[in-house]
Amino acid sequence: MSAEHIIDPQTATAVEAVHWAPPVAPMDMPRQVLEAPRSEGAVAWLMRLLLRPVQHG
Amino acid sequence: MSRAPAPDLRTLTLRSVAIGFAVLAAGAAAALLAATSTQDGVHLWDVVRTALIFVTTAWLAWGAAGAFIGLAARRRRVTPPPLTLPQPPTVVLVPICNEDPVTTFARIAAMDGSIRAAGLSVDIAVLSDTRDDLAAARERDAFARLLDETGGAGRMFYRRRSDNRGRKAGNIEDFIRTSGAAYRFAVILDADSLMEGETIRHMIARMQADPQLGLLQTLPKIIGARSLFGRAMQFSAAFHAPVFARGLARMQGATGPFWGHNAIIRVKAFAESCSLPALEGNPPFGGHILSHDFVEAALLARAGWKVELDETIGGSYEEGPENILSYARRDRRWCQGNLQHARLLTAPGLAPWSRFFFLQGIFAYLVSLLWASFLVSSIAATVTAPPPNYFPEPYQLFPVFPSDSTREIVTLALGIVGLLLLPKLAILGSAALSDGARSFGGRARAAGSVLAEILLSSLMAPVMLMYQSRAVLQVLSGRDGGWPANQRGEGRLGLGQSLVAGFWILTGGAIALAAVKMLAPALTIWLLPVCLPMLAAPLLIWVTSLPVRRGVFTAPEETDPAPVIRSFHRWQTRWSQPAPHRTEAMNAAA
């Protein structure tokens, strides 16, 4: 039986108590780069790929 | 620059073998078709269909190679490392969005008991993205009851986001940003996931034992299926999937997959490498990344963390779709998510295998369209073929008849069917020899189930092909499918509902059959295995949604359910009645 038949939302009274919240312990999450800048594009990526062994000497 | 772990020699060899097998099989199929179709000269449609058979056969052979590589059991079992005390702080994350809270929280209550029985101290955080206020009110009442009846205050948490930016990935990210530093490990689940405490203990120990391991993925078994469709999937997930997953794990090496749930992550690794940006532009190709899990696995590998799949870890469960329509709805979202990965193929620093894996995911959906294109081009090639020239030389006395190519075509058809069936039959053979079929009701019943699953999946394949082709065309034409809520539980459909849902496939099948009969009657018999299931689509959708008795597609989790599954059922039964009294939290609120 689903909650729709068991819990009537009109008479549901519980509110989010303070102790319901997860502990506050912030952690940094740096945004990742997934796409080369539009100005570079596929050709620049290909060049980087081809030139990589040269750069590594 | 990529710091992705380099694949070892064994992984590289297996990848080469699989790719080599796929190319060889595709080459053989293309050569057979080219030999028969170019007898009267090389025409455009012949080139098109030869190219298409090369690509589609390569895909089939690639899948078969994965199964063959996974057939051999692991020679040395992974020795479970002991949990090092003090136990690192760990949290189980349960992201939910418009789910049935009674069922979801019954799972949490069962897992909480199992975790404590395993001697662990693990928090559980319910991360709600539910937008509907009435549904959220139900969630709060159900959570208050959960705390009340499990004494979970202080180890069970609930928070609801004010917006659901980034969907599930954004929900997890929001938790890590606000609470991540409190935990070393996080077990990520879905609302329908269930996991044994001992499994969580094992996973924590594995993460402790290998400081470079960023993510460990389990292979969840499907449980609770009732319909014919659901039970076939449940059986397949238990019988075939471990072999396919072992093949995948062997080829992936340390750049393994993440399926978004039933996995443990190292919070620090995830935080430093998995914050996903929204892609430039609008959906379907821009905006938030829908299939975030593949990307997160690739990013962990890019940052130098190992991502591993271990299909031998037991006690990990999920539920599956109960009918073709809910499967197709979920598949539409996955299709859009995988095609969106085309934008990420050139993402800086990814391991080559991660890029290949993206490509593979894209191909999993494109291939339906390619099969459909192959059928259309075969008809076009037949229709546009020039009439046979019996006297190609001037002053020729005797006619030259075109050579009979039935043998080549039958060989090609058998080869393709073989690539489809051999992996499943090989898995059956392996299970029969190793006594692995016992928990599936014995050899005879397992064989019956495998044959029934093959028959059912063959009948459903053209219907699935139509749904996938439609999904691909929708995405390519710029239509955003969004993120519809999962439909769980009872999946029984009415005949009328099935007729409405499948009428477009029935119509497509009728038009295709009529067109072939009119334009290329010789091909009619070859297209019947595709057209007949299409004509029967509404009936298939309806029949496969009906509940069937448990003797069909017997799975081990039914004959001997794990303690956490039994506990979940007890909690679910208990909460199927209204709360007998006002809970502590409700009273506090009042």
TrEMBL record, chain A:
Official protein name in the record: Uncharacterized protein
Lineage: Bacteria, Pseudomonadati, Pseudomonadota, Alphaproteobacteria, Rhodobacterales
Automatic annotation (TrEMBL), chain B:
UniProt keyword Transit peptide present: no
Lineage top rank: taxon: Bacteria
Pathway(s) it belongs to: Glycan metabolism; osmoregulated periplasmic glucan (OPG) biosynthesis
GO MF assignments: hexosyltransferase activity
Location in or out of the cell: Cell inner membrane
Keywords for the protein's UniProt record, in alphabetical order: Cell inner membrane, Cell membrane, Glycosyltransferase, Membrane, Transferase, Transmembrane, Transmembrane helix
Main location: membrane
Glycosyltransferase 2-like domain mapped to chain residues: 187-381
Cellular component GO terms held in the UniProt record: plasma membrane
One Pfam family hit: Glyco_trans_2_3
Presence of keyword Aminoacyl-tRNA synthetase: no
Segments passing through the bilayer: 12-35, 47-73, 362-385, 409-434, 446-467, 495-516, 523-543
Protein topology in the membrane: Multi-pass membrane protein
Family: Belongs to the glycosyltransferase 2 family. OpgH subfamily.
The protein's name in its UniProt record: Glucans biosynthesis glucosyltransferase H
Organism: Rhodovulum strictum
Lineage: Bacteria, Pseudomonadati, Pseudomonadota, Alphaproteobacteria, Rhodobacterales
